[in-house]
């Protein structure tokens, strides 16, 4: 379909990063490889490379976020870009018209890249369709649709621990229905060749058509966790109790919270992931979150290098990354 | 003026005519079909060689946006687009601003329509006052003094079963048909796309099929209880069609329509958030689309309508869920209907655009019978054209059919024997 191309330029290079859907396996591997190269930057005495010097990146956050915004900011700064943080009170701008007006104003300030988080699915696509041709858009989460950099940092973390994607069983537990993280993870895992992806949760928070995403659906945690290599817990939004989706946090933890006991059902070397922020005692027990199998804090660290990789690729500097690599 | 339409191929389903005939018009009415009446002098001849001559299209539902939303369209702009599309009668739902629950609003609309002179306009009165679903509107007065042809709560729900029952009973005693938009408020929630593969992929809040079928089930039971004549608007799912067909089989006074766009598009057409495919009810699955076409062929769906909803540009310039629902469809109604001739006979297609909707509205229109008002559409069935929004006459250019190759173009439209459009 024509719309797939919006993420790519005429040479098939990454221009916007809006969704994993439609991207080729090699593109995802390129992102992971570039991120691998950038991961040493944080350990240097001067934590900077000059790749995006003179570029201006605007973090456009229509929804509150600490972790994602901070790691995007760090990633941009480590690439030597100038960063604008713009937090928009969503109640003031619910109309597309003012959204576009704001974009055009920022364009007029010669911004090169928008990093966008928005409460509405499709917002990043919408913005990408309307920005000037020289501007790149990175989706930092749109509604329940996609959060592709989160998914890539998760893939990065999995690859660090498990090497071969094609031999893995991955379980994602929680609110798949409303999770942009889960959707992007599922696309990425499928693209990278993971043969068995499971989603686990009660029917109220698993879409009826989930199987179409290329996953197996489990409503029982004990069955779903059997022989799993990677356990991904999703954050449970508190407001889900109000919509009659779940009876209580208490029951949810009992049925779907990850405890040491339940984790034993997975493979002995299984890793435990969580996009954060964690609700301890709701979807995950503290001893698991802080335990030896948990890679949750690694995910945060990897978020910086993965975002550096995506930003540098989208701003057309991937060739410079290669130069750096040959010099080092 | 005395007009002769010569050499056209006439399709007049009401009279079972499908043949090459000349038509003679005088004093705004059809004077003869076939042979020239004695003493008939011709002031003007329209050469319809190679063209089809059909009754003017009767559109069961079109929003003209006036009064209230003139930034999206006016009665003049939209009736002009209708005339250019072969539509001679438009039925207006009551969700104008102010709501069409008093005769003064009807008067305003009728006055504007007659000033513009491009098409006839009939109105549906509000089923409940202010469409609030709480209190009955003055239906009897709307019928008597406003000539409303039916009542409807437009897209607003009547969630309270007792109020719906009372409204149906009252409408039945007024002899008014109730036009129903079947949507359960709770199940539809904040949905903006069919709950299915696409809504799951895109993370859009879904409207399940049960939002439609649950409402239809409730309404059918109340129709049975109250005996009211009811018409279901823009049916969208296979299951809904089945339920309506069953009620018709059981002899209940129920009719239904489908929009031309629901006969051609599915949830897949949303692609990556195409807001021009944001419509209520939502486009559903391929299976649903096929069932709608099949039900149109069997007659369980009685009519095709435009469900025209013109919008200003800004209404569609936002992330999908935040855009306004609806499509500007007057100009694609006939050519989209003509694409159905693989599944329906041409005469059946024309029937569902003219005579059937006229019967549902209970108005004298939709035929080429001698003595009837000469509302006529002439189109060339062989003209191929590309749909381009920049060429649209409607003030709303919100169409998902941009770039579609269409066949069939209107050459003349006559209203009361007067040419209101010609190429």
Model description:
- The complex is a heterodimer of chains A (328) and B (423).
- Chain A is of the alpha/beta class and 328 residues long.
- Chain A contains 12 helices and 9 strands.
- Chain A folds into 2 domains: 2-147 and 301-321, Aspartate/ornithine carbamoyltransferase (Rossmann fold, 3-Layer(aba) Sandwich); 148-296, Aspartate/ornithine carbamoyltransferase (Rossmann fold, 3-Layer(aba) Sandwich), CATH 3.40.50.
- In chain A, helix 1 (25-38) packs across helix 11, helix 2 (67-78) packs across helix 11 and helix 5 (148-162) crosses helix 11 (296-314).
- Chain A is globular.
- Chain B folds into 2 domains: 3-52 and 373-383 and 406-422, Urease, subunit C, domain 1; 55-361, TIM Barrel (Alpha-Beta Barrel), CATH 3.20.20.140.
- Chain B has helices spanning 75-83, 103-116, 139-146, 161-174, 185-188, 197-202, 209-226, 238-249, 286-298, 333-338, 346-353, 355-361; strands at 3-12, 17-26, 29-33, 44-47, 52-55, 57-59, 87-92, 120-126, 150-152, 177-180, 193-194, 206-207, 230-232, 254-259, 303-305, 376-386, 405-415, 418-422.
- In chain B, helix 1 (75-83) crosses helix 2 and helix 4 (161-174) packs across helix 7.
- The A-B interface holds A 1, 3-4, 6, 21, 94-97, 99-100, 118, 120-123, 125-126, 130, 142-146, 178, 180, 183, 207-210, 212-213 and B 195-197, 199-206, 271-274, 314, 317-323.
């Amino acid at each position: 379909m024509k719309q797939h191309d919006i993420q790519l330029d005429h040479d098939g290079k990454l221009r916007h990063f809006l969704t994993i859907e439609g991207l080729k396996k090699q593109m995802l591997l390129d992102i992971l490889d570039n991120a691998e190269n950038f991961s040493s930057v944080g350990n240097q005495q001067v934590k900077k490379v000059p790749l995006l010097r003179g570029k201006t990146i605007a973090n456009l956050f229509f929804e509150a976020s600490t972790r994602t915004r901070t790691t995007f900011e760090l990633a941009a700064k480590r690439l030597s870009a100038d960063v604008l943080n713009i937090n928009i009170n969503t109640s003031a701008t619910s109309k597309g018209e003012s959204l576009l007006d704001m974009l055009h104003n920022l364009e007029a300030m010669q911004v090169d890249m928008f990093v966008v988080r928005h409460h509405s699915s499709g917002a990043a696509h919408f913005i990408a369709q309307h920005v000037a041709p020289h501007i790149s858009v990175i989706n930092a989460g749109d509604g329940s649709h996609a959060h592709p950099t989160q998914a890539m940092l998760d893939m990065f973390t999995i690859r660090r621990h498990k090497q071969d994607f094609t031999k893995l069983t991955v379980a994602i537990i929680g609110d798949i229905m409303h999770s942009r993280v889960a959707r992007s993870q599922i696309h990425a895992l499928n693209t990278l060749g993971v043969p068995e992806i499971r989603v686990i949760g009660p029917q109220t928070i698993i879409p009826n058509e989930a199987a179409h995403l290329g996953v197996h659906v489990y409503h029982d945690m004990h069955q779903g966790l059997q022989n799993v290599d990677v356990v991904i817990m999703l954050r449970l939004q508190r407001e889900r109790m109000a919509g009659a989706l779940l009876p209580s946090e208490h029951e949810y933890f009992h049925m779907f919270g990850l405890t040491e006991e339940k984790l034993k059902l997975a493979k002995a070397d299984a890793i435990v992931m969580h996009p954060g922020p964690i609700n301890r005692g709701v979807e995950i027990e503290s001893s698991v979150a802080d335990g030896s199998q948990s890679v949750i804090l690694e995910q945060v660290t990897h978020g910086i290098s993965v975002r550096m990789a995506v930003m540098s690729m989208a701003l057309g500097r991937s060739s410079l990354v290669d130069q750096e690599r040959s010099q080092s | 003026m005395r007009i002769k339409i010569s050499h056209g191929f006439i399709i007049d389903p009401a009279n079972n005519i499908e043949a090459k005939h000349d038509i003679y018009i005088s004093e705004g009415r059809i004077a003869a079909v076939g042979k020239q009446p004695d003493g008939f002098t011709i002031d003007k001849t329209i050469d319809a060689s190679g063209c089809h001559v059909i009754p003017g299209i009767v559109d069961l539902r079109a929003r003209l946006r006036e009064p209230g939303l003139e930034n999206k369209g006016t009665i003049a702009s939209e009736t002009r687009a209708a005339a250019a599309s072969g539509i001679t009668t438009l039925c207006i739902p009551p969700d104008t601003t102010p709501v069409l629950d008093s005769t003064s609003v009807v008067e305003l609309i009728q006055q504007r329509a007659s000033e513009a002179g491009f098409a006839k306009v009939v109105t549906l009165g509000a089923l409940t006052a202010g469409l609030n679903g709480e209190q009955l509107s003055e239906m009897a007065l709307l019928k008597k003094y406003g000539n409303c042809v039916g009542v409807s709560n437009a897209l607003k729900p009547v969630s309270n079963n007792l109020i719906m029952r009372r409204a149906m009973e009252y409408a039945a005693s007024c002899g008014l048909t109730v036009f129903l938009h079947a949507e359960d408020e709770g199940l539809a929630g904040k949905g903006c796309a069919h709950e299915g593969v696409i809504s799951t992929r895109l993370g859009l809040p879904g409207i399940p099929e049960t939002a439609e079928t649950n409402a239809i089930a409730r309404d059918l039971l109340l129709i049975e209880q109250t005996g009211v004549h009811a018409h279901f608007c823009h049916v969208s799912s296979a299951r809904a069609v089945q339920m309506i067909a069953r009620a018709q089989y059981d002899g209940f006074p129920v009719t239904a329509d489908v929009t031309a766009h629901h006969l051609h598009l599915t949830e897949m057409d949303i692609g990556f958030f195409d807001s021009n495919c944001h419509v209520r009810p939502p486009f559903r699955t391929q299976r649903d689309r096929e069932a709608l076409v099949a039900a149109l062929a069997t007659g369980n769906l009685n009519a095709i309508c435009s469900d025209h909803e013109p919008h200003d540009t800004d209404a569609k310039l936002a992330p999908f869920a935040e855009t306004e629902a609806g499509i500007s469809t007057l100009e694609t109604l006939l050519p989209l209907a003509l694409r159905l001739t693989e599944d329906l006979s041409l005469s059946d297609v024309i029937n569902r655009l003219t005579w059937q909707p006229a019967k549902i509205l209970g108005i004298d229109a939709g035929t080429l019978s001698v003595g009837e008002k000469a509302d006529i559409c002439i189109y060339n069935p062989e003209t191929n054209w590309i749909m381009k929004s920049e060429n649209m006459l409607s003030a709303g250019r919100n169409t998902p059919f941009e770039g579609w190759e269409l066949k069939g173009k209107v050459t003349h439209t006559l209203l009361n024997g007067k040419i209101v459009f010609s190429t």
